[in-house]
Amino acid sequence: MRDDTASRSPSPEAIRIEGLHKSFGPLEVLKGVDLVAHEGDVVAIIGGSGSGKSTMLRCINFLETPSSGRIVIGGEEVRMRPDGSPADRRQIERLRQSLGMVFQQFNLWTHKTILENLIEVPVYVLGTPKDQAVARAERLLARVGLAEKAGAYPAFLSGGQQQRAAIARALCMEPRAMLFDEPTSALDPELVGEVLGVIRDLAAEGRTMILVTHEMKFAREVSSHVIYLHNGRIEEEGPPDRVFGDPKSDRLKQFLKTVA
Ligand code: ADP
Ligand code: MG
């Protein structure tokens, strides 16, 4: 018999942030934002340039130090000092490794081959046996359609191929969740589709993701929840069909017109 109780109970929380504030000097960039992603959720963050999207994503893995707020990764609360700085560097390192980050600029090491890029941290930082790391890297390269590029240097790859390699590199860490910061906005238009295709596959297999994107059609298609940031605050949020199909706030309506 089907267990309806189990299928209705929500999956565990992967990422929770509460009351997140971030200032750069006198400039308050995040004014108290909240987010909860359960395992398997795809949360899309949209909003105009300068609204705080990257800062929000970067605070989640402490690439930026929050000014205040709570961050909980996989049920584990990040220990912060009252000024938001990490109380335990090793905890930050460990939690950061559980979040695969993909940037707008692919950030591959240019003097290493694609395979070397993928195995560097697993082997030399985490101590994964090399043959095991290589096998995993080759499997992930095949998954993003780059099996034949393992020995190539990044400069010999197109932007779309480099970004797919960067995604495979993040996956090599076997992350609990993936964080994408406008992964296609540095790409020529004809290369956007191949990268979105890889992200779509990850969503379909139930990966937890937080995705900052300007690709509204894509956000609507893959996300389970959409957050619209304006000026450091969540102006509106909800399921994608509601947020895109029936926006309530005038600012969001206006924003959707400008990006359409
Ligand atoms: P978005 O990703 O939505 O375009 P960001 O999070 O990058 O926005 O930036 C939000 C605001 O914070 C902008 O005004 C930006 O200039 C400012 N900002 C971002 N990073 C820094 C920094 N390291 N130092 C000072 N100001 C910053
Ligand atoms: Mg940004």
Structural account:
- It is a single chain.
- By secondary structure, the chain is of the alpha/beta class.
- The chain has a domain at 1-89 and 208-260: 3-Layer(aba) Sandwich (Rossmann fold).
- 38% of the residues lie in helices and 25% in strands.
- It has ten helices and ten strands.
- The protein has helices at residues 4-8, 53-60, 89-97, 114-124, 130-143, 159-171, 189-204, 216-222, 240-245, 250-259; strands spanning 13-24, 27-38, 42-47, 68-73, 76-77, 99-102, 177-181, 208-212, 225-230, 233-238.
- It has a six-stranded mixed beta sheet, sandwiched between helices. It has a four-stranded antiparallel beta sheet with strand order 2-1-4-5, with helices on one face.
- Helix 7 links the parallel strand 7 (177-181) and strand 8.
- Helix 4 runs parallel beside helix 6 (159-171) and helix 5 crosses helix 6.
- The chain starts with a helix and ends with a helix.
- Mean pLDDT is 94; it is low at 1-5.
- The structure holds adenosine-5'-diphosphate and magnesium ion.
- Magnesium ion binds at residues 53-54, 182.
